[in-house]
Amino acid sequence: MKITQERFVHEFKKRLAEKFALDVKDAAPIELYQTLVSVVKSGYSEIWRNTWKSYVKNDQKQVYYFSIEFLPGRLLKSNLLNMGWYDVVDKGLKQMGLSLDKISESEVDMALGNGGLGRLASCFMDALASDGLPGNGNGIRYKYGLFKQKFVDGYQIELPNEWLTDGNNWAVARKSKAVDVLMGGQVHLIDNGKYLEAIYEGADVIKAVPYDTGIVGYRNDHVNTMRLWDAQIPASEEVKYPTIEDRRRVEDLTSVLYPDDSNYEGRILRLKQEYFFTSAGIQSITRHYKKYDRPLNEISEHIAIHINDTHPAMCVAEFMRILLDKEHMDWDEAWQQTVKTMSYTNHTIMAEALEKWPVEMLAKVQPRILQIIQEIDRRYALELEGKKDHDFIERTRIIKDGMVKMAHLAIIGSHSTNGVAKLHTELLENDVLRDFYELYPERFNNKTNGITVRRWLQVANPELAKTIDQAIGTAWRFDAKKLHELKNHVGDKKLLEKIGKAKLDNKKKLAAFIKEDTGIEVSPHAIFDVQIKRLHAYKRQLLNLLHIVKLYLDLKDDPNRDVEPRVFIFGAKAAPSYHYAKAIIKCINEVANMINNDKTINDKLKVVFLENYGVSLAEKIIPAADVGEQISTATKEASGTSNMKLMLNGALTVATLDGANIEIKDYVGEDNIFIFGLTKDEVLEYEKNHHYRAAEYYDNDPVIKRVLDAFVDGTIPNIEVEGHEIYDSLLRVNDEYFVLRDFASYVQVQEAVSEAYKDKQNWNKMCLVNIANAGYFSADDTVEKYAKEIWNIKPNATEMKGKAKDVY
Ligand code: Z57
Predict the structure, then answer these.
(1) H or E stretch including 748?
(2) 23 phi and psi, to 5 degrees?
(3) DSSP collapsed to 3 states, 671-715
(4) What is the Å distance from ligand 1's center to 209 Cα?
(5) pTM surpassing 0.95?
(6) Taking the CB of residue 589, how many other CB atoms lie within 10 A of it?
(7) Selected catalytic residue, list 533, 573, 604, 765
(8) Distances from the Cα of 799 to the Cαs of 44, 56, 376, 403, 716, in angstroms?
C-alpha cells in the first residue's frame, strides 16, 4: 500500500471532518488518535482481506494459537512501522502541527494478559505475520484488562482497568460468525442405531461473538487475525435471563482476566472461561474447515492447534467431541486426528502453577467434556497395561484422586510438547516430565522464547536503531540476526560513543518521566539498574532489595565512600491475593522513601518503584536501562523474556544461570555478562538433601545479619508487620528460594558492575556485544522453528518479505 505525505495529510483531515466535524486545531488528542486509527485501518483492510482469501485459495495449512492471555500493548506505532508508514505519518503529522508521540500516548494499552506468557503470545502474533505465516490467535476479549496498580502509603492498590470505555478502535466485531457454547446441565448418550448420540439437557447456551484484530506483518503485505471471544446471551435464550443479575451472570464470563501469574486459583469461573474460548475457537475452526467440503480424516493436514500452557488443554477433548458427536467419526480415527493436530507449550515447572481441576467442577462446567477426558484416561491406562508398571501408569494418567491434571491431558493428547529455553526443556525431560519423556521421547522439543525486535528496538528505541543503521545498514530490520554484524565494529570508537549517547538521551527522557510521575529526581549519569517483571518470590526482587539496603548502610557508615551512583528502578505488579509479594512491594517502597529522602545520600543512591508496570511503561524503561536484573533462583524461571529485551537495548545483564540467561551467556561470552549464584545442579542438590540452613548465613555473615536486622529493628520505617514477615520467611521458613545463599555472590558481582562502569568505552563495547547477539532471540526465528518443526506450516505464497527495503 503506497502512501505519500500529501495523501496522508489529505486523508487525515478528511476523516477528522467526517468523524468529528472538526479541524485539526480544534480536535482533542483522543479524537486525533481515533482519526489516525481509522486511516491506518483503511490502509491495511484490503491486505487483511486478501491474506485471508489467499489462505483459502491456496488451501494453506493454518495454525491457531490458543492462549488465555494476549498482551499486545499499544498497536498504533507498531502497525505504522510494519506497514512502512511510520516516517510518512510522523512527518505528515508534524506538517499539521501534531506529534505522533503525543497522539500515541492517547492509546490505552490492550492488557489482556499478566506477564511473560501473554506478552510472548503477542510477540508470536507479530512474528507469525511478519514471517508471512498463516497464523491466527484465539483468546478472550476481557471487558476489564489487568488491574491498574497504584501505591497508597507504599501499599499496592488495585483499580479496575476499563480499557473499552472509548471503544477499541482496532477490532472488528463479527456478529455473523458467532457460535453457541454449551455449559452446565446434563448429558445422556443414546444409541440411536447408527451412533452414540449426545443429548444435552438443561445446559446454558452462551453466544460467543468474535472480535477480530488485524495483525500487520512487517513490510510484507500480510495481515493475520487475532480472534478474541465475547460472551453474550443468544436471542433465543433471552427469556431465560429476565433480570439484570441473570444477564450479568452470562456476561461476567468474559469480564475479568484472572490476575495470577505462574500460580493458579481453582475457581469455577476460570474453568468456564477456559472452556468458553476453547469451545468457541474449535467450533469456528471446524465449521470453517467443513465449508470447503474437505474430508475430516485429513483435518490435521490442514490445521494445527497450539495449546499455550494448559489453560486451553480442553482443546483436546473439545476437538474429540466435535469429531465424535457432530461428525460421527469413530474413536480411534478421531484420536489420531486430534493428536496430529494438537501441540502444547509448557511454561513452568513450579508446582503451584500446574493446573489440576476437581472432576466435580468439570462435570458442572461441561459434563460431556468430562466424559471424553475420562475415556481418554481409561484408554491411556489400558494401552499401557503390561507395558509399564502400575506406579508409572498411576503417576502419568490424567485423572488421579478425583483431580484432572491438565498438563497430562495436553501431553497425551498432542504430538509435541516443548519447553521455552534449553535448561527448561532439559528439566522437563529429566525431571518434571521424565515419565512422559520415557514414553514419548519423540514428542519433546525445545523452542527457546523470542521477542519482536520491531516493537522492542525499532519502535521503543529509535535513536539506537538509527545508530545501528549508520554502522551496518538497515538489513537487520528485516532479519534481526544481522545485528551480529555489529561485532565487526567493536573497535569503532565513534560508534561506541554514539551508543553511549543514545543511552544517555534515553536516560534523560526516563529521568524526566520519573520526575513527573513520582517527583523523584534522578541523575541520568548514574547507573540505571532495572528489574521489571511480575513480583514473585522466585524472581527474587527481595535479593535486589537486600543489596540496596546493604549499599545504604555502607553509605551511612562512610558518607564519603567512593561509589558509582546508581538508580534502582523497579516495575512489578503482585497478584492481589499474593500476600507475600505485596509485603515485598511495601518494603521496597519504604526503603525507597528512606533512601531518597536522606540528604546525606544525595545522588549516590536512588530507588524508584514505578507504578503500573506494563507494555507501554516497559517501552519507556528498557531503552534507558544500563543493567538488567535476571536473578531468579536457578531452575525456577522457565525462560524469561525481559532479559532479551534489555540486552537488545544495550543493557548488561546481572544473572543467575537460569532460563534463557544461560543462552544469553553462551552468545555474549562470560566477559559481557555478570553471572552469580547457585547453579541448577546445586539447587537440585539442596532441594533433594535438605541441607540448606538459611539461619547459618545470618549467624555467620555479619553483613547479612545487619541487613536483615534493618527490617525488624526500626531502621527501615513503617514496615513493622511486613519487615517481620520477610525476616521470618528467610530465617524461620528457611528461605525457600536461597536468597541468603546467593547474597554474597550477588554483592560481589554488583561490585564488578560498578567497577566496569568506570570505563565507559569498555562498557559501551560490552553493550555493543549484547546488542549484536540479541538478534538470536528474535521471535521471527523462534516462530519459524515452531512452523517447521511443530506445525508444518509454510509462508504465504504472496509473501513479499524484504521487497520494500528502500524506505529506510
Ligand atoms: C507466565 O507468565 C509464565 C509461565 C506460566 O506458567 C504462567 Br501461568 C505465566 C512465564 C514464565 O514464568 C517465564 O519464564 C516465561 O518466559 C514466560 O512464561 C513465557 O514463556
Answers:
(1) helix 739-757
(2) -90, 160
(3) HHCEECCCCHHHHHHHHHHCCCCHHHHHHHCHHHHHHHHCCCCCC
(4) 28
(5) yes
(6) 21
(7) 533
(8) 15, 15, 41, 47, 59
d(CA 649, CA 487): 15
- The three-state secondary structure class of 699 is helix
Burial of 255 per CB tally in 10 Å (0-12, 13-18, 19+): middle
The alpha carbon of 353 and the centre of ligand 1 are apart by a number of angstroms equal to 10
Query: H or E element: which one contains 286?
Result: helix 268-291
Ligand 1 in reach of 638 Cβ (< 6 A): yes
Whether 665 is a known active-site residue: answer no
What residues does 44 pair with on adjacent strands?
none
Q: Which domains does the chain have, with CATH numbers?
A: 58-74+109-342+789-807 (3.40.50.2000), 492-676+737-777 (3.40.50.2000)
Of 555, 505, 545, whose CA–CA distance to 525 is shortest?
Answer: 505
In the annotation, is 347 catalytic? yes
Judge if the beta carbon of residue 346 lies within 6 A of ligand 1. no
Q: Which three cell numbers stand for residue 204?
A: 446454558
Residue 115 CB–ligand 1 contact under 6 Å: yes
The CB of 116 under 6 Å from ligand 1? The reply is yes
Total residue length of the chain: 808
The rounded distance, in Å, linking the Cα atoms of 91 and 69 is: 35
- Helix runs in 405-539, H state only: 406-412, 422-427, 434-439, 453, 462-472, 493-518
554 C-beta neighbours (distance < 10 Å), count? 15
User: Ligand 1: distance of its center to the CA of 347 in Å?
Assistant: 5
Cα angle, residue 96 at apex, residues 95 and 101 outer, rounded to 5°: 85
Residue of minimum CA distance from atom 16 in ligand 1: 640
- Per DSSP, the three-state class of 607 is strand
Cα–Cα nearest to 93, from 47, 46, 29: 29
For residue 641, indicate whether it is catalytic: yes
Task: Average pLDDT across each block of 10 residues of the chain; the chain has 808 residues. List them in order.
Answer: 91 97 96 98 97 94 98 98 98 98 97 98 98 98 98 98 93 97 96 92 96 98 98 91 89 96 88 98 97 92 98 98 96 98 97 94 98 98 98 98 98 98 98 98 98 98 98 98 98 98 98 98 98 98 99 97 97 98 98 97 97 98 99 98 98 98 98 98 97 98 98 98 98 98 98 98 98 98 98 77 40
Helix pair 76-83, 29-57: axis angle to 10 deg: 50
Ligand 1 atom closest to Cα of residue 346: 6
The answer to whether residues 135 and 125 touch, using CB atoms and an 8 Å cutoff, is yes
Q: Does ligand 1 lie within 6 Å of residue 84's CB atom?
A: no
Does the ipTM exceed 0.95?
A: yes
Among the residues of 519-604, which ranges form H helices?
A: 541-557, 579-596
Q: Which residues contact 476 (CB under 8 A, 6 or more apart)?
A: 453, 468, 482, 483, 485, 775
